[in-house]
Structure formats: structure tokens, C-alpha cells
From TrEMBL:
Region span, Disordered: 1-33
Protein name: Pentapeptide repeat-containing protein
Keyword Repeat on entry: yes
Bias kind Gly residues: ranges: 12-25
Keywords: Repeat
Domain of life: Bacteria
Residues of the signal peptide: none
Length: 245
């Protein structure tokens, strides 16, 4: 049987506290910490090596070094699964549900996860490019290690998500809603925050914070003093302030 240990708290749990609520940058004394997934998968059955099926149901399976490139698993459900070293070039997983699963060493370009749901998921050491996750829902997700280029999270909803020791090149958060999201030793290059809504988003531990658009949407996030200094020219330009010596 496949089981997992979650160690979850109540729906509004997390460290910190403070006053205020809602999106839009209410002042509070401490940022609430994201809750991480705690997964232990065992007794997994090996995937039979066939192709994914639309609306398929995959429960307690291990996909090891599977070539899923170009396959169509739109609307499929993955529960208590481990995907290790799989190729996902242009794999169609539109509206898929990935629950209580660990994804390790995925590689590919153009993976379609638009309007998908990821809940209690660990994504480890991924090497991905052009991933489509617009309109997706991510809850209790840990993205650790690896590099993702051109991640499209437009209009997505992220709650209790941690990006840790990974590199995100030109991620697009346009119109997304982020609550209790942390960036820990994570490199953000040319991030697009246009129209984003933030609540309890912690950027202080980001290794690099480079925002190409939407810097005025940082209300609801917490940054470090050094990050504020780095962002000062962008903030000044956004506010129409001229800085002259």
C-alpha cells in the first residue's frame, strides 16, 4: 500500500501572525511560512511502459526513465506516483491532477500542464523549458533544485509553494495569485509580475531577484534591505522619480 506522511496543520496554519489580511499588501508583523509537502512513497508498482491515456488513472505507480515525449495524458490523475528521469518534451497534461507524488529529474521542452492541479508534490532537479502552467493550481508544492526556463504561470494560483535552490529564467507570473510562497536560495531572472496578487510572499532568501515587469505589484511580499537597494532604480523609474548626482 502507498502511504504518505504529511504532518499538516490547519488550513490557515503557518508560522508568524500579524494583523491584516487579504491581498494587496496589508501591513503585518510577520510573514506566514509556507507549508511543505512531506511525502513517503513505497510499494510502488512499475509503470508498464505503455503510452499515457487522456483521462487515465495512475495510482501508486513508478515511472522510471519513461519516455513520455509527445504523449497525451490530458485530464489524467496521478496519485501516489513517482516519476524519475522521465522525458516530457511536449507531453500534454492539460488539466491533469498530480497528487501526493514526487517528480525527480524530469527533462523536456514545451510540457503542457495548463489548468492542471498539483497538490502535495515535490518537483526535484527538473530541467525544463517553456512549461505551460497558465491557470494551474499549486498547493503544498516544493520545487527544489534544477532549472526551468520560460515558466508560464499566468493566472495560476499558488498556495504554500516553496522554490528552493533552483533557477527560474523569465518566469511569467502575470495575473497570478500567490499566497504563502517562499523563494529560498532561488535565482529569479527577469521575472514578470504584471498584475500579480501577493500575500505572505517571502523573497528575502532569494539568491538573485531580478524583476523585469510589475515591480509595483510587490505589495504583499517581504524583501530584504539589500534587495530594496537593488530594486531602488526600478522602483524610482516606476514612480517617475529622477535620481541625479
Amino acid at each position: 500500500m502507498v502511504r504518505r506522511a504529511t504532518g499538516r496543520t490547519g488550513e490557515d496554519g503557518g508560522s508568524g501572525g500579524g494583523s491584516g489580511g487579504g491581498f494587496g499588501g496589508a501591513r503585518r508583523t510577520a510573514v506566514k511560512a509556507a507549508r511543505r509537502p512531506e511525502l513517503r512513497l513505497y510499494d510502488l508498482r512499475p509503470f508498464d511502459g505503455g503510452e499515457l491515456e487522456p483521462d487515465g488513472d495512475y495510482d501508486g505507480l513508478e515511472f522510471r526513465e519513461s519516455d513520455l515525449a509527445g504523449q497525451d495524458g490530458g485530464g489524467a490523475r496521478f496519485l501516489d506516483c513517482a516519476l524519475t528521469g522521465c522525458a516530457v518534451d511536449e507531453t500534454r497534461l492539460h488539466q491533469a491532477r498530480v497528487l501526493d507524488s514526487v517528480l525527480t529529474g524530469l527533462r523536456g521542452v514545451g510540457t503542457d500542464l495548463a489548468e492542471s492541479t498539483l497538490r502535495d508534490v515535490e518537483l526535484v532537479d527538473a530541467r525544463l523549458g517553456g512549461v505551460q502552467m497558465h491557470g494551474a493550481v499549486l498547493e503544498r508544492v516544493l520545487v527544489r533544485g534544477g532549472k526551468i526556463d520560460y515558466l508560464n504561470l499566468r493566472a495560476a494560483r499558488l498556495k504554500d509553494v516553496v522554490f528552493e535552490s533552483c533557477v527560474l529564467v523569465e518566469p511569467d507570473f502575470g495575473g497570478a495569485r500567490l499566497e504563502r510562497v517562499e523563494f529560498v536560495d532561488c535565482v529569479l531572472k527577469r521575472a514578470d509580475l504584471t498584475g500579480v496578487e501577493l500575500k505572505d510572499v517571502d523573497l528575502r532568501a532569494a539568491a538573485e531577484l531580478d524583476i523585469s515587469a510589475g515591480v509595483e505589484r510587490l505589495a504583499g511580499a517581504v524583501i530584504s534591505p539589500s534587495q530594496l537597494m537593488d530594486l531602488a532604480p526600478v522602483l524610482a523609474a516606476q514612480m517617475g522619480i529622477r535620481v541625479e548626482g
